[in-house]
């Protein structure tokens, strides 16, 4: 019992930090006149996070970008088979083919639906935080506009091999990354989920797509 009581203040302190961050996020939304939902769960503590190596994140980012490029060509019906062969060659050049997710594999093997192509193209917005975590872009602005797609491509396209790509990587600290996740979880997702509730048709689908890619970047252990 003594040990339990000794641990309680730390538990409450961590809980208080999470609730404070949530309160500040809601306060910001109120100031911007944005509707919000108060009952969303808080993000896990830093102690609960399984740290991924720079190599793991780099492979995930490269797989993501190359698959996005193929999905773009599939959407536009631009030299589909040539594009598939070229992008497969890029996977092999960087040595990442074995690290594709199931949905990425479907883009390459031709079993993906048109909606899967659309979802994959939106993963630009999930890819961008990955290269931020790798120190390859300087900052993450509030996502009220599309990321710099040209910059996103050049991060990988200017490198010949995985080892060359890794030379520019400077993995950000868990504290800096966690601060980003708290911001995304408590501010952006609340904003989007509240708008989905009142939206209809294509607008609703648009918000749902944004939620999809943000959740994939927040919770990469989920299937994507």
Note down, in words, how this protein is organized:
The protein has 224 residues and is mainly alpha-helical. The protein is 67% helix and 0% strand. It contains 10 helices and no strands. The chain has helices spanning 2-31, 54-76, 80-94, 102-109, 114-121, 124-133, 149-157, 162-166, 174-198, 201-218. The longest helix is centred in the N-terminal third of the chain and has 30 residues, at 2-31. It is globular. The termini are far apart. Residues 1-15 have low confidence and may be disordered.
What topology emerges from the helices and strands here?
Blueprint: H1 2-31, H2 54-76, H3 80-94, H4 102-109, H5 114-121, H6 124-133, H7 149-157, H8 162-166, H9 174-198, H10 201-218
Helix pairs in contact: 1-9, 2-3, 2-5, 2-6, 6-10, 9-10
Helix-strand sequence: HHHHHHHHHH
Oligomer: single chain
**Average pLDDT score:** 78
Main β-sheet: number of strands, strand sense, barrel status? none
Low-confidence stretches: 1-15
- Give me the Rg, rounded: 19 Å
> Which structural class do the helices and strands define?
mainly alpha
The total beta strand count reads: 0
Task: Give the percentage of residues in beta strands.
Answer: under 5%
Percent helix range: 55-70%
The number of helical runs is 10
Head-to-tail CA distance between termini: 44 Å
User: Based on CA inertia axes, which overall geometry fits?
Assistant: globular
């Amino acid at each position: 019992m003594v040990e339990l009581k000794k641990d309680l203040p730390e538990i409450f302190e961590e809980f208080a930090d999470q609730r404070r961050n949530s309160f500040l996020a809601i306060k910001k939304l109120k100031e911007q006149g944005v509707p919000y939902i108060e009952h969303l769960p808080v993000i896990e503590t830093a102690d609960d996070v399984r740290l991924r190596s720079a190599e793991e994140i780099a492979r995930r980012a490269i797989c993501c970008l190359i698959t996005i490029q193929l999905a773009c060509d599939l959407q536009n019906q631009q030299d589909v088979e040539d594009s598939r062969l070229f992008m497969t060659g890029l996977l092999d050049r960087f040595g990442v083919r074995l690290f594709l997710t199931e949905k990425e594999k479907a883009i390459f093997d031709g079993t993906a639906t048109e909606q899967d192509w659309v979802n994959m193209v939106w993963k630009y917005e999930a890819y961008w935080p990955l290269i931020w975590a790798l120190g390859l872009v300087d900052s993450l602005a509030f996502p009220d506009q599309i990321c710099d797609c040209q910059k996103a491509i050049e991060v990988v396209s200017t490198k010949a091999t995985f080892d060359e790509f890794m030379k520019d990587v400077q993995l950000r600290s868990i504290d800096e990354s966690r601060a980003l996740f708290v911001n995304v979880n408590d501010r952006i997702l609340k904003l989007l989920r509240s708008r989905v509730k009142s939206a209809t048709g294509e607008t609703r689908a648009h918000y749902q797509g944004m939620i999809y890619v943000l959740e994939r970047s927040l919770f990469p252990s989920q299937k994507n």
